[in-house]
Amino acid sequence: MEALRNFFYDKKVEKVLDIGTGTGKFIEVLKKSFSEAEFFGVDPDENSLKEAKECFPDIVFQKMGAEELYFENDYFDVVSLSMALHHLPKVKRGLKEIKRVVKPQGWIIINELFSDNLNPAQEVQKMYHHFRSRIDRLTGVSHRETFRKEEILQIIRQAGISIQFFFEHKREVNLIEEKGALDKMTEKMKQKLETISERPEFEEMQSQIEEFREKALEFGFQPATNVVIVGRKK
Ligand SMILES: C[S@@+](CC[C@H](N)C(=O)[O-])C[C@H]1O[C@@H](n2cnc3c(N)ncnc32)[C@H](O)[C@@H]1O
């Protein structure tokens, strides 16, 4: 993300915490801006952390949710949360913790996909995402539908984070171009649906898989646009 590299190139950043790090995908992005920094990654999901540790053996990964961080106050120069805001069961509490552990002169980076102004191929990705997130909610896992861009900015401002700047990031790719990719996706949807086979929503959601396939063949499948926000605690 060139805008991040340009903004941070002359700023001293020694410690970076990536929250909701998953398999560490966003750390890979951040390393391009903070090549000298020491990284820490946290996530409640142990399986993802195991993969992250294999990819980045030098980084400390710990099992932790955003709502309760086991770090001192004012500890990090940069704290990031990527594609995870809509996963937090307690958004306000999570953002409060982020503010607590970042230094007063430090930076908060929020990278989040949004649901408005999407092209038809991105609408197909939204269908897929919302299908999966609905099943998560039905099975007791915190996973909201995607926020609108303005909602995200409002949540950040209301949390007492002053936004220094933000930009949109869009990947111009069709993820079902590769042979077999759409079959894999529909298979994943079917497997996920099986987890609610006893529920009344099952049948209705079964028909959504075919609808998804048709739309994907017509329009393609492109990741949603993200808003990347750089802020500071007030
Ligand atoms: C879509 S993944 C994003 C992974 C990575 N940050 C990225 O940008 O690709 C969302 C991550 O949020 C994590 N998550 C869920 N609940 C969380 C919580 N309460 N606190 C922190 N992370 C959470 C999930 O385990 C998952 O790894």
In short:
The protein is α/β, with parallel strands linked by helices and 234 residues long. It has 8 helices and 7 strands, in the order H-E-H-E-H-E-E-H-E-H-H-E-H-H-E. The protein has a single domain, classed as Vaccinia Virus protein VP39 (Rossmann fold), CATH 3.40.50.
Polypeptide structure, described:
- It is a single chain.
- It is built from 8 helices and 7 strands; from the N terminus they run H-E-H-E-H-E-E-H-E-H-H-E-H-H-E.
- A 7-stranded mixed sheet has the order 3-2-1-4-5-7-6, sandwiched between helices.
- 41% of the residues lie in helices and 22% in strands.
- It is globular and about 50 Å long.
- By secondary structure, the protein is of the alpha/beta class.
- The protein has one domain (2-233): Vaccinia Virus protein VP39 (Rossmann fold), CATH 3.40.50.150.
- The chain binds S-adenosylmethionine.
- Residues 19-22, 25-26, 43-45, 48, 65-67, 82-84, 87-89, 142 line the site of S-adenosylmethionine.
- It comes from Maribellus comscasis.
